[in-house]
Automatic annotation (TrEMBL), chain A:
It catalyses: a menaquinone + succinate = a menaquinol + fumarate. Residues 164-186 form the 4Fe-4S ferredoxin-type domain. Signal peptide: none annotated. InterPro entries: 2Fe-2S_ferredoxin-like_sf (IPR036010), 2Fe-2S_ferredoxin-type (IPR001041), 4Fe4S_Fe-S-bd (IPR017896), 4Fe4S_Fe_S_CS (IPR017900), Beta-grasp_dom_sf (IPR012675), Helical_ferredxn (IPR009051), SDH/FRD_Iron-Sulfur (IPR050573), Succ_DH/fum_Rdtase_Fe-S (IPR004489). GO terms for molecular function: 2 iron, 2 sulfur cluster binding; 3 iron, 4 sulfur cluster binding; 4 iron, 4 sulfur cluster binding; electron transfer activity; metal ion binding; succinate dehydrogenase (quinone) activity. Residues 29-123 form the 2Fe-2S ferredoxin-type domain. Keywords: 2Fe-2S, 3Fe-4S, 4Fe-4S, Iron, Iron-sulfur, Metal-binding, Oxidoreductase, Tricarboxylic acid cycle. This is Fumarate reductase iron-sulfur subunit. It is an enzyme of class 1 (oxidoreductase). Its EC number is 1.3.5.1. Belongs to the succinate dehydrogenase/fumarate reductase iron-sulfur protein family.
């Protein structure tokens, strides 16, 4: 109504200027980052490097890795893209457990001891924290991670009831970070095992009412390297950064294979 | 903000699994342990067909005091494997099983403890009772 208010500065800016210590309000602390390094061009064996860094309460393990790479040792090698928990690039073993570096706040870890960071297990390490993801994606491709529908395409969407959509909602959240598959003791010793991530993504289509290839996927996973390798250690469920009930999804696929063949 | 240390040839750390992983480790160790005990036991029992004297000598070894603890250990392994085996069956076939796997493990451990307390008490009593 009144034109006078339009001229005012936004309140937030005025506030910041007056207090003048916006950044200083975040507490800082020292952390020791201990990274397991590997570079076949430098040494045959892996080695551990330690750095002590001054970090802030808002920083994540990824920020600490950036600090090392940008300010101290540019040869430190790791993958990351989105930095916000959605691309699935930076799964690594932090203090012995698979986590996304971009979703793990330093202040949530025990900073009185060095924070250990290692590559995920079970896939060949190429350099430092980078592993060869090809075996992982090979298994993913084999379960046909796409909609198969043999009826003629409708002019609009293929409709689905909310209940039918809910059936596989949990497994749609996967970002293919491999935290689950590389936390699995079966996968560490048997690289041929399809692994939790492939089963999660098969589950996403097997229980989709619009999909027609469920039986084919069940057949693929009924293999000796399929779901029956699972020993229900729950490492995958504990590791998943998306909170997917991975072991539950695997159990549902096992049950589907059994009831189908009856 | 400096490099403080570099350790050559460092080994990786142990994966920090939780209840699910350690119960599986326990299940496998007890399963393999029971298997080897049964293997030996089938062999020593079959000795009776070869030579009753040799059988008596070998079976007599079970009377050695050390075997008391061996037997308690064996029963402990079997009891854990059996109770946890039932838990795994529930995880696999009961719809809510994956959500309660930790609770069920605590139940297994409590049942194991109660069973073992009762068994050990009776076993030691029979042994030290002189028979
Ligand atoms: C007392 C009754 C028993 C029950 C209820 C039982 C139950 C089970 C179950 C459900 C599994 C599957 C584990 C999984 O899926 O991860 C299993 C595994 C196993 N059992 Fe038993 N079992 C029993 C007796 C035995 C005996 C007598 C032996 C030894 C001869 C044995 C040796 C094993 C071994 C070696 C495994 C494989 C462990 C693994 O794959 O991690 N079990 N048992
Ligand atoms: S199921 Fe979870 S842990 Fe496994 S790949 Fe998908 S997002 Fe990562
Ligand atoms: S960088 Fe994308 S998930 Fe962490």
């Amino acid at each position: 109504m009144s034109t006078a208010t339009v001229e005012q500065e936004p309140a937030s800016k005025v506030d910041l200027a007056e207090s003048g210590d916006g950044a200083g309000a975040v507490e800082s602390f020292d952390v020791t980052l201990k990274v397991r390094r590997y570079d076949p061009e430098r040494a045959v064996d892996a080695w551990w490097d330690e750095w002590t860094l001054t970090m802030y309460g808002t920083d994540r393990v990824l920020d600490a890795l950036h600090k090392v790479k940008w300010d101290i040792d540019g040869s430190l090698t790791f993958r990351r893209s989105c930095a916000h928990g959605i691309c699935g690039s930076d799964a690594m073993r932090i203090n012995g457990r698979n986590r996304l570096a971009c979703k793990t706040l330093l202040k949530d870890l025990d900073t009185s001891k060095p924070i250990t960071v290692e590559a995920i297990k079970g896939l060949p390490v190429e350099k430092d924290l980078i592993v060869d993801m090809e075996p992982f994606f090979q298994s993913y491709r084999e379960i046909m991670p796409f909609l198969v529908n043999n009826s003629p395409a409708p002019t609009a969407e293929r409709l689905q009831s909310p209940e039918d959509r809910e059936r596989f909602d949990d497994t749609t959240k996967c970002i293919l970070c491999a935290a689950c598959t590389s936390s699995c003791p079966v996968f560490w010793t048997d690289g041929q095992y399809f692994g939790p991530a492939a089963i999660v993504n098969a589950h996403r289509f097997i229980f989709d009412s619009r999909d027609d290839a469920g039986d084919m996927r069940l057949e693929v996973l009924n293999d000796k390297e399929g779901v029956w390798r699972c020993r229900t250690t729950f490492n995958c469920s504990d590791a998943c950064p998306r909170g997917i009930e991975v072991t539950k999804a695997i159990q549902e696929v096992k049950t589907a294979i059994l009831t189908r063949s009856l | 903000m400096t490099q403080t240390k570099s350790t050559p040839g460092g080994r990786g750390t142990l994966y920090k699994g939780r209840e699910g992983m350690w119960s599986w480790v326990g299940h496998r160790i007890t399963g393999v342990g029971i298997f080897f005990f049964l293997l030996v036991h089938v062999l020593d029992t079959s000795l009776v067909r070869v030579s009753p004297e040799a059988y008596n000598a070998v079976i007599g070894a079970y009377k050695h005091p050390i075997m008391i603890f061996g037997e308690i250990g064996l029963v402990g392994a079997i009891v854990f494997h059996a109770f946890n085996g039932l838990r795994i069956i529930l995880v696999d076939f009961w719809k809510q099983g994956t959500r309660y796997h930790k609770h069920m493990l605590y139940a297994v451990l409590i049942l194991w403890f109660v069973t073992m307390a009762a068994f050990s008490a009776r076993h030691l009593m029979i042994f030290f009772g002189g028979e």
